[in-house]
Amino acid sequence: EAGVAQSPRYKIIEKRQSVAFWCNPISGHATLYWYQQILGQGPKLLIQFQNNGVVDDSQLPKDRFSAERLKGVDSTLKIQPAKLEDSAVYLCASSLDPGSEQFFGPGTRLTVL
Amino acid sequence: GENVEQHPSTLSVQEGDSAVIKCTYSDSASNYFPWYKQELGKRPQLIIDIRSNVGEKKDQRIAVTLNKTAKHFSLHITETQPEDSAVYFCAPEAGTYKYIFGTGTRLKVLA
User: Which of A40, A45, A105 sits opposite B99 (nearest CB)?
Assistant: First the structure.
């Protein structure tokens, strides 16, 4: 079984630029999560999808972050414009349903200069 | 909002000794209590979980115990090995199917 795929693996941008991350969950997994993990901290949930609907986006900075999951499969997370404090690893995870084990992708390491 | 605390933040043990990490949460409605292991530069991986209708669960050298009354659950690793060195996160359920990760415990197993 293929795992959660993410791209790119690394991204370096300057502040005020835009960036997008892509996630392909495990086939058949209805629930998809985006987390932000700042160095030395635990993952922080940004947004949770159930199929193509948003379940929770209470911690998503909506003035600069947006996410979508068209057709209930792949998802993209965008930051526009980026700030220095957005430097982090962005992790995508998926689960069969909301109460099941989460499987994480390798993450995208974002550096904002 | 939900408050999740882990203790200790760092833990060093000699190889072969046991390690215990405690996670305290505030949402009395939580029903699912997982532990994740994250090695340096790698993704978090679930190592063990427990649901609220069970008090203890064991998988080889790893066990999790749950005290719902006191709102805490603990990770127990016996006969520690160097490959157990990693950061461990608890992520109790906080609201329906929403999970908040703890601050992490860095475990170092000394050979």
Answer: A45
Nearest to B103 among A42, A102, A104 (CB): A42
- Cis amide linkage into residue A8, ω under 30° from 0: yes
Among B43, B50, B99, pick the best mutation site for testing chain A contact (most A Cβ within 10 A).
B43
Per-residue pLDDT of chain A (113 residues; tens, 9 = 90+): 589 999 999 999 999 999 999 999 999 999 999 999 999 999 999 999 999 899 999 999 999 999 999 888 999 999 999 999 999 999 999 999 888 899 999 999 999 99
Produce one character per residue of A51-82: b if its CB has 16 or more CB atoms within 10 Å, e if not: eeeebbbeebeeeebbbebeeebebebebeeb
